[in-house]
Amino acid sequence: MQSTSPAVEQRLQATKEHLTRTAISSSPEASWIHPYLRHSVHPVKGRQLQVSQTIKKGELLLVDIPYAAIPTVDEPLRSENVLCSNSRCNRKAPLTAERVSCPNNCIADVVWCNEDCHRMDQPRHTIECAWLKKFAASIRSKWGEYDFGMLWLIVRILTTRTVGMRDTQRACPPRDDQGAEFKAGWAAIESLCGSPESWPHDKVRHWTALVKKYLKDNMPLAHGMAMSDVLALICREEANSFGLYPRETGTSVSEPQMVRGEQFGAAVYPRAAIANHSCDPNIKHKPDIYGRMVFVASRDIPQGEECCISYFDLSQCVDLKDRRAHLQSSFRFVCGCLRCTAEEPPSEDVLWDAFPLLEE
Ligand SMILES: [Zn+2]
Ligand SMILES: [Zn+2]
Ligand SMILES: [Zn+2]
């Protein structure tokens, strides 16, 4: 008998409430993990998310607060899409009289919703502010926005770690079953995948130069980490950070495809980062108003199935060749998901293409 149990209905209702909630009074500091969501280690693919029981289409699976986030908008002074710098807020700071810019004029991209957010973020931003004043302009002009954004996100991770905002208070209650506890805070960041060996030499050499020039263990950062550990952190951040877009990423292939819109931020999420990629994902993801990453099942997910997201906008990269080229250049792997495998040309076709003369 196919019936929806009250428990499922309650869970779907919880999803709906979360997704439609806009009140600021709800608690933005909490992550939420579905009781059936597990992480495990696959012998080939490494870490992955799975469900221990069947999940219904539309169920909320994960709401994860960022460990660190940065805004990535043009013209921040006029934009409605700049994220509040308070790492406990991460909302888009409304363009009102309440919005606060940095009194030290570090960069225009640093804003807070109001004086409360500014005050709360003071201990962390003071360190970041000195770094931005010293390096932001020269990094931007010498290396461009991409490297600046990457380094700034690393500095946000390092300053959050230094101030110790997350580590003690954000741990999810441990689970006693299957050892499926999700790490939180800095411990989770340290266990993300990605190492210098997984990146091309020229990239690693470039990042090493940036670390030596801008991320040394002295003032203002004084992070207390070895250069090699900071380099390893960049390798993990580059493999795991999320772009923040206004609309969902990973709409199921059978649904009408919607462009996800213009990127307004980038963030690192301790648990959401565990999800692997599929070109036919069973999860769609989107940031909520607090910059938390929200995972929702886009179809029924049977017990034991891996939960995957799409790492890119599937409506923009459609053909197998385009998808593979994009994943290879941006994420360093050849996608072997079920959709890619099914779309691979039969091996004879490859041969005929390679030896056109044989067709004559
Ligand atoms: Zn705020
Ligand atoms: Zn500042
Ligand atoms: Zn694929």
From TrEMBL:
Boundaries of every SET domain copy: 35-312
CDD domains the record matches: SET_SMYD (cd20071)
UniProt superkingdom: Eukaryota
Pfam name, any one: SET
Name of protein: SET domain-containing protein
Organism: Aspergillus nanangensis
Taxonomic lineage from the root: Eukaryota, Fungi, Dikarya, Ascomycota, Pezizomycotina
